[in-house]
Design goal:
This protein is α/β, with parallel strands linked by helices and 267 residues long. The chain is 43% helix and 12% strand. It is globular and about 50 Å long.
Length: 267
């Protein structure tokens, strides 16, 4: 998928996220908007037919920051992996499409939202892929607040020991953890140094630049380095909605009619 088509997908996904969150009167707007280009870049570079048919050789995509469910479900819809009538049930009573992602939904690899678990599951998938002789990749998307969980670093130590160069961890580095700046909770300093200290293949990019994301994924697929890959995606929480950008309150706050109109009007 070319960059122009991917960019249109990201545009459409952002509008859909705004709409379904408003309709559901749900939260996590900021967390969903910051990760859209990351998810778009990944799904632009995987074999959608293999995912749709659930073949063993498919790439795996795990959204460990599962509270960005609106972004993942909207991405699945715009990539033809979810019907519109299913998406319309987002956060409604009785629906599987709740505020954290669930593997009860087709093409969701793992239920997440209890932060820090997705990477360990991804390590397991990557080991299985290699054991079976598959060339596929496992992508895990974590938040920068989520990496405060010790289980993240345990998983990385084992992934490095096992030389899992088919594991790709993408960090949504939007610099806000829940309702405050991430550095006010745990201050890593430059987080790139933490990952370099684990002797991982570390890349730092603009997390809203689709060309950069897509090209890096292509490069990782073609050139393995006998160690896991970490992509630090520098992003803006609430990206694309001016009143929500870098505003911690939009982790939980819901859109009223006026804010919804303003947000859609900026797209």
């Amino acid at each position: 998928m070319d960059v122009k088509t991917s960019s249109q997908k990201a545009y459409d996904i952002r509008k859909t996220v705004i709409d379904i969150i408003y309709k559901a009167q749900a939260s996590h707007l900021g967390s969903s908007l910051s990760v859209i280009e990351i998810l778009t870049g990944i799904y632009s570079e995987v074999d959608l037919e293999e995912i749709a048919s659930k073949t063993e050789s498919r790439d795996k995509v795990i959204l460990s920051k599962g509270h960005a469910a609106a972004a993942l479900y909207s991405t699945l819809y715009h990539f033809g992996l979810m019907d519109k009538d299913v998406l319309s049930t987002y956060h409604q009573p009785g629906s599987f499409l709740q505020g954290h992602v669930s593997h009860g939904v087709d093409y969701v690899e793992h239920s997440t939202g209890a932060l820090g678990h997705g990477l360990s599951v991804g390590v397991g998938h990557a080991i299985a892929q290699r054991t079976l002789g598959l060339k596929s990749l496992t992508f895990v998307v974590c938040g920068d607040g989520e990496i405060q969980e010790g289980s993240i670093w345990e998983a990385l130590m084992y992934a490095r020991t096992m030389q899992l160069d088919n594991l790709v961890l993408l960090i949504d580095n939007n610099k806000i953890s829940s309702i405050t700046n991430t550095t006010n909770v745990i201050n890593f300093g430059p987080i790139v140094n933490a990952f370099l200290g684990f002797d991982l293949s570390v890349h730092e990019i603009n997390g809203h630049d689709l060309m950069e994301i897509k090209n890096l994924i292509k490069s990782i697929r073609d050139v393995r380095e006998n160690r896991p890959h970490v992509i630090i995606c520098n992003t803006v929480k609430g990206k694309g909605v001016s009143f929500a950008e870098s505003q911690a309150i939009w982790h939980y706050k819901t859109l009223d009619e006026e804010k919804h109109r303003l947000a859609i009007g900026e797209q």
